[in-house]
Structures are given as structure tokens and as C-alpha cells.
């Protein structure tokens, strides 16, 4: 292979699958987690800071035209202005400092405008992480609101439809992998549905903190040189205008605790969906679901008949990678040496990988849910074969009627035997119970023994509306 570097990007040469084979699936995250995105958000924070300095009276008042000029500057960059963002990268090659490159880029741009007299106030009194922590907070907040939450919502919507289509399908319950009390397929899916709704509500409520307070978090240079400005109020107001929560008590870096809480929420959401994927995989294995067959697709190179549950399997693997990173972030970002060290900078540059694998997995689950439908006959046939599950109501009715040996009677008849309905009825007729009690048991079948499962489904789906 030619050792010369080809600067033209090819997905075939990408180092990771996120930017390679799956690049087309993750385009919605690019505006938030690429290097270009990071530099855009840095420029955004710097420009907003300069505007705030003017609005607060700290520096001269800008004209409406000048405010509009700064806004149009940002709009141009947001539209992925190749020249501007490439220029930042070229400056960084000289400075070997990414935030300094952003500062110089803005200063160079403003030199050609009526704002050239305030160029020196770009980045006044700030440390790099005043800009970076705000930029990353905004990247994560916006991507979560605009991409991640809607993707989870789609899973919940698809799961809701599957619940509705299976809310009357009686199913054998399994505890420890063994036959247990019957349930309803839709109710078992409802468990995941409700857990996701609750955790998603928690995610939506989370506030992301940010700081703007100088080199060691004390506004040292601000107070010394411009004491007329109340910098404590300025900082809080500025952070709030960004849509973030102000944190006044920090070192050089914002402590990341609010992000760690968010990562924990995403881990819980991803783990809930992993559980859903594993259960659906096993139900498919049992034949409880049809899988959509697409003629052009291949399930196995060895076995031509196969249709594999690849979307649920792939999602499980992707969530594993994402959660491993989120868990690492939660550990690593919990501490920093003294007032700061730079190890967090390397770590947070990888945030997009965790979010990327999460999104990829959400998409896989959504597709997987669209490709399955309940096989009612197999599900019900499996249930009615397991008459032994009726030992539970029998032994409990005996208990209710004061029979101390109720459990032993049922155990001796049912355990380790293949039970038929005729054999069960003969057993019931021989019990020391009233005719009315025997009638209750004689009329019982596995598919009728589902408790309030259907009512639970109707109640919760109605409540969620």
C-alpha cells in the first residue's frame, strides 16, 4: 500500500465502524460530536461571551448592526462553513492549542469589522475550560434532546404497538427458565415499556452544569481589573442564557457531576433495553414471534432457511460498548489532580463514541421491533401443555380451606410427572373440598389463569396517554 496519506476520507478506511460501515446511520450525531462541531460550539461560547460583556456594560455597547453581525457569523459557521472551520484547524497547527486557535480565528475575523476595537476582549479573563466545559455541555444537551431522546421515544412507540397486538395472548410464564404461572405476552413487554418511560422522564429532567469563572474558579483577574462588574451575577446569568445550570464552586474545571448523573441514566436506559433484547431473542428462539422474511437478505451462508434476530443481537453488543464507556467516564471524570489535570480532555473527546454506539443500538432495536409479530398459536399451544402450573391455585385453595398439608398434597401429585387434564380432574375430585370449591378448580385451565394481566395492560396504556 502507498505510504502517502490520502486526505480524502473514505468510509472503507475508517478506523472504527462508527465512521465506517455505519457512518450513514449516524449523520444526526455529526453536528454534535465531530471536531467541526466542537469548534463551532467553542466559537459560539466565545461570541456569546463577547456579546454578554457588551450587554452588561463591561465593555462598550454594541450597535444592533454589530450584534447582528456576530449572530450572522455564528449562523454561517453553523451552516458548516468549510473555510472558517478549516481555518481554525490550520491555526491550531501553529499554536498546538485548540482553544487558542479559536480565539485567534475570531480575532482575525473581527479585525475586518467595526468591532476591531474590542478584539482584545475576546477570551478576556478566561481559561480554556471556561469555553470547553460550556461547549461540551451544550453538545451533550443538544444531542440528547434532538437525537437520543427521540430515538428512545421511537422504541417506546414501537413497543407500545407490539403490546397492543399481544395484549390478549396468554403465555406461559417462566421463572428460573422453568414453567411458572401464566401471564400475557403484552404485559411482559409492558414491564420494559414502563421502565423506559420512567427512566426517560428522569433523563429529560436532568440539568447540565457549566462554569465561567477563570483559571482556578475565583474570577481572580475579573475582580482585580474590572471590579465594577459583579462577576458572580454575570457568570450565573451567562450560563443560564446558554440553557445550562451555573456552577460557581469549581476548580479550573467544572466537576462533571451533572454529566455523570446523565451517563448513569443512559446506562440504565441501555440496560433496560438490553433486557428487552435478550427476552425477545429467547421468545424468538421459542417460536413465539414470526420474523419478517426479506427475500434479498441472507440469514446464514451455511443454512439458507435461517432468519436470525441480528438486530437484537447487534443492539446488545453496541449497548455493551456504550455502557462500558459511560461507566469509565463516570469513574475517570469523578476526580482531577488538585485544581486540574489534562487527562479529562482526552477522555471527553471520545463522548461521541458512547453516544454513537447507543444511537446505533437504538436504531437496531427499532428495526428489530418492526420485523417481529406474535405467533399466537405457538404461544398458546406451549401454555396449555403445561398443566402442572395449576398446582399453584390448587395448593392455595387447600391452604385457604385450612389444609395444613396443602403444599405436600400438590407436590406429591404434580412434581416430576406428566399431567393430563383427565388426571388433574380425577385428582381434584378426590380432594377434601366442597363441591363449589371443586367446581372452581375443574373449570380452571392454564389460559384462564392469568390474574389481572389484561387489566394491567389497559390501565397503564390508558394512563400513559
Brief account:
One of its GO terms (molecular function) is N6-(1,2-dicarboxyethyl)AMP AMP-lyase (fumarate-forming) activity. The chain is mostly helical and 465 residues long.
Written description of the protein model:
With 465 residues, the chain is mainly alpha-helical. The chain folds into 3 domains: 111 residues, Fumarase/aspartase (N-terminal domain) (Fumarase C, Chain B, domain 1), CATH 1.10.275.10; 221 residues, Fumarase/aspartase (Central domain) (Fumarase C, Chain A, domain 2); 68 residues, Fumarase/aspartase (C-terminal domain) (Ribonucleotide Reductase Protein R1, domain 1). 60% of the residues lie in helices and 5% in strands. A two-stranded antiparallel sheet has the order 1-2. Helix 10 runs antiparallel to helix 11. The longest helix has 38 residues. The chain is elongated, with a radius of gyration of 31 Å. The N terminus is likely disordered.
Percent strand equals: under 5%
Helix content: 55-70%
Domain unit count:
3
Shape: elongated
Mind describing the biggest β-sheet?
Answer: 2 strands, antiparallel
CATH first level of the largest domain: Mainly Alpha
As laid out across the biggest beta sheet, the strand order is 1-2
Q: Low-confidence parts lasting 5 or more residues at pLDDT below 50?
A: 1-6
The average pLDDT value, as a whole number, equals 94
Using only C-alpha atoms, the radius of gyration works out to 31 Å
The CATH superfamily of the largest domain is Fumarase/aspartase (Central domain)
CATH overall fold name of the largest domain: Fumarase C, Chain A, domain 2
Distance between the amino and carboxyl termini: 59 Å
H/I helix tally: 19
- The second-level CATH architecture of the largest domain is Up-down Bundle
Structural class determined from secondary elements:
mainly alpha
Number of strands: 6
Order of helices and strands: HHHHHHEEHEHHEHEHHHEHHHHHH
